[in-house]
Structure prediction request, 381 residues.
Amino acid sequence: MSLQGNSGVFEMEYTLVSILFAYVVFLNIKNKTIVVGNILIPLLIFLLYSLLSITWTPVKPDGFKGFLAMLEGYMVYYILTNGFFKIKKKHLLNISKIATYVMISLSFEIIYIYSYYGFETVIHSKNLVHLGWGYSNFIAVIFVLLIPVALYKYLDNKRYYLQYFLLDIISIISLILTLSRGAIVGAAVALTLFFIIYVRKYFLIRYGSIIGVISLIVIKIQKVNSFYSSIIDRFFTGEFMDNNGRFPLYKLAFEKFVDKIWFGNGLRSSKYMISHFLDGHNSHYHNFILQIAATLGIVGLILFSFIVFRWVKVLFKPYDKFVVCSAISIIGALAHQMVDVSFDLFYFGVYFYTIIATVEIYRHNLKSDSLKLKYIGKIKS
Prediction:
């Protein structure tokens, strides 16, 4: 059993989130207090419009499942912002370490899959990268979201986190072993931004030398070189980004957007359209902007733009390293979702909105910060 839980909508992990959400709402009613986060209202408006769109989606059960999948991340955001958590600067290193722990737990599971089936077998059979609760792309996006948060700890000039750095290297290798091209693109964007903003001489001296030594060892080990060659062949045989027929999906999404430009074809109508017009088995268009455009139309894009505006408001604090790392995490994840499927769904939504809610709570508790959570009703002391 994975440490992450199961993927079904009504499985234990989703049920626990729902129960916790109900409990927090109960406390809100009991205490006559609600905390309104900076993105809560735009999220609710977008969610209600998505629910309304089920009335015109071709297959109503598909639309309802899509709504439930979106809802989980939104519930997590509400739970955190209304849970009266206090996140202060002294807690940030622990949050960064937790990101490492989560990734290394996934890494051990992925490494076990490769050892069980054999490296060459798995590298050519992506469907084997499945942990029982989610397939490779769902697994990979968690790495993309957590890597920048994990990197925050290395910006501490006073301490040397060697053991964590080694664990994070294993996690980056495990990300590659998920075989998710989109996730590698997202992680590359995030790591490039982190390198440009924060990598300086002291960082290279401390941690660059470790990478150099590991690289030299890898070069000397023939079997590792064989693994490396297999990975290169796996990723660069044919079109890098079109191995799963993404371009026909993009074309169909644009055609469906033009066909019903204002209100779209309904939430998760993509599953029906792909099956009907492309005889495919995908449920999404592999691009989150096209997904919103084709399913929710211009109205959906406008409502979504308000959420994006609030994201920027929450994540724009240039001189705070934790906020910047969180922003890099979100940017990397969205870069991933330009070529992948899991935007706002299940684990993507859970981790995505956990990061945003964490930043909001942290900034709320900074006395010098003007970004605050809004309390309606009696203020909890």
Q: What stands out?
A: The two ends are 41 Å apart (CA to CA).
